[in-house]
Queue: 2 jobs
Job 1
Amino acid sequence: MAELRLDCLGEACPVPLLKTQKKMEGMKVGDILVVEIDHSCAMKNVPEWARKEGHNVEIEEVDDGQWEIYIEKTK
Amino acid sequence: MALKNNVYYKKFLKEPWSYTAGAVVLAALNIGMFASTGKPWGVTSPFATWAAKIYQSMGGHPETWAYFKSAANAEALKNSIWLDLHSVSDIGIIFGALLATLLASQFKIKKIKSVRQVIAAILGGLLMGYGARIAFGCNIGALFSGVASMSLHGWVYMIFIFLGAWAGSKLLVKYFM
Amino acid sequence: MSEVVQKSIKTNSKSKKKVNQIPFGVVLLIGLIGFGFFMANQSPKSAVMWVFGVAAGFTLQRSRFCFTASMRDPVLTGSTSLTKAVIIAIATATVGFASIQYGAVIKGAEKIPGNISPVGIHVAIGAFMFGIGMVIAGGCASGTLMRVGEGFTMQMLSIVFFIIGSLWGAKDFGWWTNTFISKTKPVFLPNLIGWAPALLIQFGLLLALYILADWYGNRKSE
């Protein structure tokens, strides 16, 4: 049950989602990935992708225009 | 502050709208522009006008180019940008987006992170600027308004913008990530 | 968007104390309205476009609408949500556009209104260049303007070069006109095949593309 972090601050679409997809591949079921983003579109498309894949997702706005997306790998 | 927890504040101003809601509102706005001014929405023509105005102020003579000989372009170059309808809407887009970001309390200056982003911004900007001039528009003027105008050039544009995006995606993954 | 997960997976929350930006937004809104009234005195048409422009920017940002992603995401991430949204936008706009155009035709307009431009190899080359550029720069024209408003320095740089590129394109436009564009002409589908077939083909193609996008989007997530 590891918790990994992925720093995507300053990255524009589609880089955050591509990095997240790649990182998730190498993770075990139950692991949690925290994606740090400040791209307003990524706070919509990263969770959308993760939910579609069936993972558990939570978003937190940690600062003005900056989010952390928690993704728990479920399969 | 109570407003921040208000359910309608969250729904309309804080959380993102669905893509479909955006699509329908943008279509309505485009129809509105077409109906009220006689011209559908376009974004990129003003960029050439602005650049030409700057070039003129530096002593250049873009008014002798074939592009600025056409009636519409010549008029846009001669008049104030506040009389050029799409210049006005372009500036409006910037302020509308700023307004939406501030009302959601999500404004943040996002700094450039790396040299590759600088190169990407320069190359991408030049390609789009040049491409939009010879294709008669951008994703708004040629794709959105062009296809909706039932013009064949809009459909041709759609096929090749997709091929371009495919090639761009390969380049992005290879060099800009 | 539902954020309900049975058990919270968030660990140590490091939420900072945020600045409330809403008052700045309200002040900006008042300023934008005031500027609109000022402009209405000079040129009513400009004021109308000001309102439409601000509304469009607001909508683009609120819905995270992105024409670039509609073309790029199917290739890169397998998502077609925005592709479908763009098809819906085009189809909805067609209803209004066709009505305006048909109205103009029965009133005897010589030139059909709308964005109807010459079609030829220049459109293919220009669109291909634009497609590469928008993916690399992370936004097309409307997307770049919207992101400038959101505070992205990368897009502020890209718009400067977008403007320079436009000047370059305008300078070479004469060559493109002589070599290619002058040999082509605009094609308005209803003039080519008639109104009813044109509308049938238009909506038929858009529906087919929507179904294709939906199928592709679902297939990728398997």
Job 2
Amino acid sequence: MNNSHRRQNSRGRSTVLKVVILGDGGVGKSCLMNRFVTDRFDEHSFHTIGVEFLNKEIELGGETYTLQIWDTAGQERFKSLRTPFYRGSDMCLLTYAVDDPPSFKNLETWRKEFVYYADVKADFPFLVVGNKIDLERRVTTEEAEAWCKENGDLPYIETSAKDATNVEASFMMCLRRWANIEGRQERMPMPDTGLLGIL
Amino acid sequence: MDEELLVYEQDEVHTIPTSQDDLSVSGKLRIIEKRHGVVIEWRYSDDETSTDNEWAVINTAAVTFTHHNVSDSVEISSPRRTVRPISIELVDLRSYKICDNHSLVLIQRDGTTHPALAFHSGSVHCFVEVLLRYVAVKKSEKDGDLYLVSDKRQAAQDQELAAMNLVPSRYGMAGDGGGWSGGGPSGQWTSTHQRVMGFINNLKRDPYTTAAGALSKFYDTVLYSDVEGYVRENDGGEDEVAELFHSLNGFEDLEPGYELLTKKGTLNERPKVERLSPLTHDDFQQYVDDDGRIHDVTPLRDRIFRGGLHPNLRREVWCFLLNHNEWNATHIQREERRRSREDLYYTMKQQWRTVTPDQESRFSGFKERRSLIEKDVNRTDRNHPFYEGEHNLNVTALHDILMTYVMYNFDLGYVQGMSDLLAPILYVTQNEPIAFWCFVGYMDMVYRNFDMDQSGMKQQLKDMQQVVRLVDPELMSYLEIRDSANFYFCFRWLLVRFKRELNYANTLRLWEVLWTGRPCPNFHLLLAVALLDTEKNTIMENKFGFTEILKHINDISLRIDLDATLRKAEAIYKQIASSPNVPDGVRTVLGLPPQEPQQQHKSNKDEDASERRGSGSDEDVGSVNVTEGLGLVGVVSSMIGSAVRHLGGEDMMQASLEAVSGQQQEEGTSHQRRDAEAETEKRFETALSHQFV
């Protein structure tokens, strides 16, 4: 069962981290979230209206984290009602679909929108996700990796929410990156060997 | 596994269908002591062997429908959401509801609200008995069905709250059943009076510290205490506090936008409202003359509002309600119009169908829309029999109508949410051109939901603020304290007119009722207010904040009692319409005539109030109502709110929020986290409210 890694300590010890999933409409943001949280995939699930979020507990280096995953409507029109939710984010998944080149092209716009409204530090833990690798590919891995390199050496992963490929791994990867950045910052006042040990 | 101990197990615990044609699913409810803590689980009965197939079990149990034949009046609706197994760690259980002595709803701390479970064998009380071994439970005083779970840590905090002694709290009363007792009303009032005066003096001396400190102290106390009951028992106390408020020299001048409504300004009683059965074919014929004309539209609209339409009448009457047919036309004229509009539809359809890929490569606005429509029709109502399966022609028709609408109204184009508005229309009309024109009629009513800058949606959220502030100031104060006064959690309700919250049968019923335009403009907002009224106790007693409210509201989707909500919404309308002193802002929203001047001059106090109202803006978003339901709590929190806003602006509010968030440890997150959240939500609200201006 997926729940096997649930926290052992009682509530109050787990840190809540806010994760925002961004990307064009139809790239699979809700499907990634649902696959990760409930291990379920519905090909015909509704497109998101407004905002939704799900919580999922995840363990890293003996610590339990509650990922509060925010999923928003991807259409440009809803920008003004979406961006207020970016504040306070701890990490961000920039998502496109590998069968949908315009969605890849728009990663730049999404990154800018997020950075502007979330008001985050330069070394914010982004993760670029190429979803739908179960479908015929129209964006190559090389193209995507090149873009990531040009844009501050962002980490990149390819997933299929349908086949459950790399979905948990992508959230884990993002959490590690968060812990890495966090650990770097906190090393001076309070070294966290527990976290650094596994990185 | 051997470390697990099964302490409770009950077979035949069923989910409760949300409508007559929904499915009830049987399962096992268990309480298990696991190594890391106690867990409540509910799983399908036949799910013992396979855990991988959790989802498939329900999907295969689909009901067979006679679809594609609406005129046979089979109202169909499909279970659009599969039932999920439940697993809750006891530490995450916030409360539960027991309705009619046999159904159980479990509610988590994060706002997750699980489907109602009915005990077909055994009893919910046995479950509760076992539960009580692990947690303390107290019954809500406001909602007889609601039970709040607390552990020892929380109980200790309650004691601390009582010790703060800012306002009387029931936790301070040893052995008291809940109400205020001991000392006699007048004696207690004097001490409250002194406390309020003391507070006011402090506020004058050191406004920053006093306001921030009091707000933070006040925070949980407001939510725990039974102050309203206390004020009611001490008749006159409220007026006295109102006078205190007045006596503060110049206080009311600090915020010209704030108004004070006294007790006399509260709304009248909410009347009882009855609804009728749906309008039948025979009923309808009485409104139609031999040539097909409908002369008397007003009583017909009234009748449709009161009961909706029989399903076999929908196809015909929706065309009237959505302006495809003209009421006062003959059969012959109607047929002519139908034919010419059909031609027009196919002309516009040809326009986009003949765009070549080469053209499209230089027509990005068109290409983007086409791409999004393709994606969205493939995820619109695909669990409904009418739209299910691969290569479904109805999905193609959905696509074609939306593409043609892009040609019909290129400025608006396609916006997410439109496919939700179209799908039920196509299902009812079963005719592509007719569905198109009916959709055009619907869009003419709701196009502002899809404004480029979303100003139509923002206006509605702002209107919600005004109406809730009037109808339920207590809830409004709560939402303000919890940084939820932006009403963002109503966004989905309003954007697609509750389509995602109701099953198909109920969506059709609601929409035809809304299309009648009765009893007032923006009746859908009152429906939202009625739903919030129903959820109020759950939200407040569970002390939900913004994220929890959002989650709870999303979770009650498909569990709404439409008929009861319609009755409540109409009752709220009648309540407002019959009451004096309804602010003009609300009057405008609901199409009521402006307030007549003589109504405002009943007493000196009312005159004061009306003067303030006159000098303030008519957008009384910042108003403070001191009404019966709000009582002492409202007065003091209003004072704090005003002082904070006036004296310190944003920084001050931030300081107060930080003080507030420090009190939320028991919510399960760290101080730091909470502060960040409070800040986020505050900024969100600020951002939204700036956009509103």
